[in-house]
Specification:
It contains 13 helices and no strands. By secondary structure, the protein is mostly helical. It has a single domain, classed as Glycerol uptake facilitator protein (Up-down Bundle). Helix 4 packs antiparallel against helix 5 and helix 6 crosses helix 12.
Length: 292
């Protein structure tokens, strides 16, 4: 029996004496999944290093464009919802916003979980740089989105009622287990979208991930700190909303926490655990550059 297994292994080109060798050392092995994970990890760390070493100006400009581009997705969402009253179709229309982020190389706050955190964990950037990215992108997203939503409301008066109705759904939501669950799922979905996009070099696959993420996030009404804030800003810009900015803040703070929890704990942490050995290598290289 044992000799038969060894013969099969040798026939397949597998050396039974390297079972203790790490998958990374094997490379191009009989397990293409491991090689693909290695490639995805390298892409994330390389991209994260570039993103985290940008200046404040670059972070703010990129985040501002992210807010304006997502707002165009909100316009598509509201237009389809106004005409069809079908939220699932409207969610697909919102994919325009995520496609703009992908192709325009701009940035959304909740996209800053998987890639930058992995980079910091690999000691290719500092926690301070991560904080700069998060704060700068969040503020710039909101400012850029607020501006475009004001223009949308002014340009499309017919969408005012739909904008207010959509915004009330979020602002009126009480702090509850359901609301927190929707926020956690919102953070998880967009971070998963980021993970899928970094797991491939195929642009059609990246686009498919953006459409899928938009469908789940906007189509199912998950709570997202940026996307839904833009809906609320649009409603406030009409001057007819039955709520104010303090009501927005009352919803925003716990949604933000839920998004962070979903993105960091349910996706990023598990990805880091999966790449534990690779992270050790990166940290070793960072501490002793001579070993590279």
């Amino acid at each position: 029996m044992l000799s038969g297994v060894l013969c099969w292994a040798l026939h397949r080109g597998v050396n039974p004496t390297v079972s203790s060798t790490s998958q990374r050392q094997l490379g191009d092995s009989d397990s293409p999944i491991e090689d693909e994970l290695e490639d995805a990890f390298n892409r994330m760390v390389d991209e994260g290093s570039q993103r985290l070493h940008r200046s404040w100006r670059e972070v703010l400009v990129t985040g501002f464009f992210g807010g304006t581009e997502v707002a165009i997705g909100v316009l598509a969402y509201l237009s389809v919802l106004h005409e069809t009253h079908n939220q699932l179709l409207a969610g697909l229309a919102f994919a325009i916003g995520f496609l703009a982020l992908l192709l325009g190389r701009s940035e959304l706050f909740t996209e800053g979980f998987l890639v930058p955190v992995t980079t910091v964990a690999a000691k290719r950037a500092s926690v301070g740089q991560l904080g700069k990215l998060w704060v700068g992108t969040l503020v710039a997203n909101l400012v850029g989105g607020w501006l475009i939503m004001a223009l949308i409301v002014a340009a499309f008066p017919k969408l005012k009622a739909q904008t207010i109705e959509s915004a009330v759904h979020f602002v009126a939501a009480p702090l509850s287990v359901q609301s927190l669950a929707l926020a956690v799922l919102g953070g998880m979905v967009i971070t998963l979208m980021t993970r899928m996009q970094h797991g491939t070099d195929s642009m059609p696959a990246k686009i498919a991930a953006a459409v899928a993420g938009a469908f789940v996030l906007a189509g199912l009404g998950l709570f997202h700190s940026i996307l839904d804030s833009l809906l609320i800003f649009g409603a406030l810009s009409t001057g007819e909303a039955p709520f104010g900015y303090l009501d927005w803040l009352g919803w925003f703070w716990y949604t933000l926490i839920g998004n962070i929890a979903g993105g960091l704990v349910l996706v990023t942490l598990l990805r880091l655990l999966r790449s534990k050995e690779r992270l050790k290598d990166e940290r070793r290289d960072a501490e002793d550059p001579a070993t590279e």
